[in-house]
């Protein structure tokens, strides 16, 4: 089997390692089957997509809709590199799954409106699949409504006409969409369980997602939720595209 490629951009080692382990666990992959590149650490190397089964973009502290002068040089570089890679991925309809940051990257690349209108605080939310979502192979075996963990400053306000809306929440109208047949993005985290969310709340308590003094309360709230359905997306993605 060709490996899957995880493109990560979390500078905090604890968050980066937890994310990688989650993709291994819930994708049922071994380290040799999931190559990781940490984009925040060094420029993206030359990639031949033929060497991989699919590309996954993990979450990120970067906010793509921020004004250009508010972004670091590292963020500008990462955005340029991802945009260039997406040129090739979209042209080939090469299997792609972007989680959280994937909405900002794939969405902006395809002409979606990405802004802060529909941000959500870290925690559990109820996701509802559209009719197209219920019929999509990546969501096979999932109920119409399920709990997922989320936490994002920005979201998609308007999809381009060629995108297919697959899932929404009460507070965020675009939680998952598809471009062409093989390009997916989710606003919620399909890799994240309660303990993983607790780790991120602790690490990102001063990152502007929530008032720092509310971190302990958010951690307690996170442990009250059980999110197991979103992980089926990772298993379906791996089963569908492993080659």
UniProtKB/TrEMBL annotation:
Keywords: Glutamine amidotransferase, Transferase. Transmembrane segments: none annotated. Signal peptide: none annotated. It holds the Pfam family GATase. The keyword Metal-binding does not apply. GO terms for molecular function: transferase activity. The keyword Zinc-finger does not apply. CDD domains: GATase1_1. GO terms for cellular component: cytosol. Residues 49-192 form the Glutamine amidotransferase domain. This is Glutamine amidotransferase.
């Amino acid at each position: 089997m060709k490996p899957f490629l995880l493109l990560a951009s979390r500078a905090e080692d604890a968050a980066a390692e937890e994310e990688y382990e989650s993709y291994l666990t819930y994708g049922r992959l071994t380290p040799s089957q999931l190559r990781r590149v940490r984009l925040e650490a060094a420029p993206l190397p030359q990639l031949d997509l033929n060497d991989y089964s699919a590309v996954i973009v993990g979450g990120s502290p970067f906010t793509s809709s921020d004004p250009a002068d508010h972004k670091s040089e590292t963020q500008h570089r990462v955005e340029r590199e991802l945009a260039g890679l997406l040129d090739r991925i979209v042209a080939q309809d090469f299997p792609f799954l972007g989680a959280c940051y994937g909405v900002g990257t794939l969405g902006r690349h395809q002409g979606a409106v990405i802004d802060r209108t529909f941000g959500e605080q870290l925690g559990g939310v109820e996701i509802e699949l559209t009719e197209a979502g219920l019929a999509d192979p990546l969501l096979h075996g999932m109920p119409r409504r399920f709990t997922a963990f989320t936490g994002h400053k920005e979201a998609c306000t308007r999809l381009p006409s060629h995108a297919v809306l697959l899932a929404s929440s009460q507070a965020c109208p675009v939680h998952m969409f598809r471009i062409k047949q093989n390009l997916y993005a989710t606003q919620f985290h399909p890799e994240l369980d309660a303990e993983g969310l607790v780790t991120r709340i602790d690490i990102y308590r001063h990152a502007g997602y929530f008032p720092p003094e509310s971190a302990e309360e958010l951690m307690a709230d996170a442990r009250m939720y059980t999110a197991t359905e979103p992980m089926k997306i990772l298993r379906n993605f791996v089963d569908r595209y492993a080659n």
